[in-house]
Design goal:
- The chain is mainly alpha-helical and about 475 residues long.
- It has helices at about 5-10, 30-40, 45-50, 50-55, 60-85, 95-100, 105-140, 145-165, 170-200, 215-230, 245-275, 280, 285-295, 300-330, 350-365, 375-395, 410-430, 430-440, 445-455, 460-475; strands spanning about 340-345, 480.
- It has one domain: Amino acid/polyamine transporter I.
- The chain is built from 20 helices and two strands.
- It is globular and about 75 Å long.
- It starts with 6 loop residues before the first helix and ends in a 5-residue tail after the last strand.
- About 50% of the residues are buried.
- This is Large neutral amino acids transporter small subunit 2.
């Protein structure tokens, strides 16, 4: 796949100014980096499903401990990724790190799973959550219809894709705005919980460790539930090439975001536990909405709105960052070259964004999209383990590689051991989901051998790839990225 855009096609595009090259620009500052991490992590999880930790942990005290532990574990992983991201300053996150450490096949398998499971499934679930809660806020007491939820999810996915195609600055403004909105919502929850505690006491916390589980399997599943609400801490690494001064801003954004999110998550859960009984939390489908109904009276409608705003910002950040993963994969020849094209006017990877949008929309119209979540946690943990293993392997294999940030050797070792535990535990508890996840990964091997490794491809396949590439270039006014001299 060497023919990206024929010279004749390039001549049909408007001439660029001498000082403007066609490539992704470094437009993300420190605040934008913080907004991306906070915006992607703080989705619907903290508003909708804190009960998952409580169900598996058994007690309020252990649930709070797990929320703190999950935050510290996420910070530990993010610091390891800060070393990876400054040592390998390429966009693409895990894909780039696995490729440098272990070669193209493992990197392609990560890209393969991310393409069809990890990224579009997460985006589809976020879009559906947004649609459900915005409709609930418009028509309180009514259960939104299947068709209405799907239709609104399709609309918001297309809208945010269009914004991402048009201008990176618009994307960052949306991200900054909705980061502020969701932080404000959590501050309302914390403030209302504090007021309730002073007015009525904290009787629900009198016996915090009562009913604590001692089963390691349930504790591990509780940690999984906690980590799910922190997922997205590595998304800024997907856009390293668009981050201003990444050696400084990547680790700073991580060190600001993860402690902030951990503190907010723990205090929000304390507020939930102060106001709601354990039974009320376990019977609720959306803890924040139940909290609002009990405490906010006529203003309870704001909670569904805040949940919707939170998921809107999370979806915007996920579309922006994950589209760069597929862009980098195509740039390396692991996806059709058309996906690595950049619009000459807006300097955005429009084909990659539209490609991601199409896959997400295909999941939105299926009824089984939620079932894919069962395979996401295991597969994601597996490739995170591989990335951290790559950090340790590169320290041994390439000790002289420039490392602007070098975390203590203990940090990746501890994080790796925990990841290994989280990878192997489901093999015992959920063998069917693990087996299906592994089959999805393995199914990428023949695809790799046929479309990438095989050098003597038939002429019809080469011609088809070239025609698709040229058509995309003309349709979206795109050209390949220009390399620095």
């Amino acid at each position: 796949m060497t023919d990206k855009v024929a010279p004749a096609e390039r001549q049909n595009f408007p001439a660029q100014s001498k000082n403007q090259s066609v490539k992704l620009k470094k437009e993300l500052g420190l605040f934008d980096g913080v907004a991306i991490i906070v915006g992607v992590i703080v989705g619907a999880g903290i508003f909708v499903s804190p009960k998952g930790v409580l169900i598996e942990g058994g007690s309020i005290g252990l649930a709070l401990i797990i929320w703190v532990f999950s935050g510290l574990l996420s910070l530990m992983g993010a610091l390891c990724y800060a070393e990876l991201g400054t040592m390998i300053p390429k966009s693409g996150g895990d894909y780039a790190y696995i490729s440098d450490a272990f070669g193209p096949l493992p990197a392609f398998l990560y890209l393969w799973v991310a393409l069809f499971i990890l990224v579009p499934t997460g985006n589809a679930i976020t879009a559906l959550t947004f649609a459900t809660y915005i409709l609930q806020s418009l028509w309180p007491g009514c259960v939104p219809s299947y068709v209405a939820v799907r239709l609104l999810a399709v609309v918001v996915t297309c809208l945010l894709t269009a914004i991402n195609c048009y201008n990176v600055k618009w994307v960052t403004r949306v991200q900054d705005l909705f980061m502020g909105t969701k932080i404000f919502a959590l501050l309302i929850i914390m403030g209302a919980g504090l007021w309730y505690m002073f007015a009525n006491g904290a009787h629900n916390l009198d016996k915090p460790m009562e009913s604590t589980t001692t089963d390691p399997g349930h504790i591990a599943l509780a940690v999984y539930s906690g980590l799910f609400s922190y997922s997205g801490w590595n998304y800024l690494n997907f856009v390293t090439e668009e981050l201003k001064d990444p050696y400084r801003n990547l680790p700073k954004a991580i060190c600001i975001s993860l402690p902030l999110i951990t503190i907010i998550y723990v205090l929000a859960n304390v507020a939930y536990f102060v106001v709601l009984t354990k039974d009320e939390i376990l019977s609720s489908n959306a803890v924040a909405v139940t909290f609002g109904d009990k405490l906010l009276g006529p203003m309870a409608w704001i909670m569904p709105v805040f949940v919707a705003c939170s998921t809107f910002g999370a979806l915007n950040g996920a579309i922006f960052t994950s589209s760069r993963l597929f862009f980098v994969g195509a740039r390396n020849g692991h996806l059709p070259n058309a996906i690595a094209l950049i619009n000459i006017k807006n300097l955005t990877p429009i084909p990659s964004l539209i490609f991601l949008c199409i896959i997400t929309l295909s999941l939105l119209i299926t009824e089984d999209v939620y079932k894919l979540i069962n395979y996401v946690s295991f597969v994601e943990a597996l490739f995170t383990t591989l990335s951290v293993s790559g950090l340790l392997w590169l320290r041994y294999k390439r000790p002289d590689l420039h490392r602007p940030i070098k975390v203590s050797f203990i940090l990746p070792i501890v994080f790796l051991l925990i990841c290994i535990f989280l990878v192997f535990l489901p093999c015992y508890g959920s063998p069917l989901e693990v087996g299906i996840g592994l089959m999805i990964i393995i199914s990428g091997i023949p695809v790799y051998w046929i479309f990438i490794y095989w050098e003597n491809k038939p002429q019809w396949l080469i011609s088809a790839s070239r025609n698709v590439n040229t058509s995309c270039a003309k349709l979206f006014m795109c050209v390949p990225e220009e390399k620095d001299d």
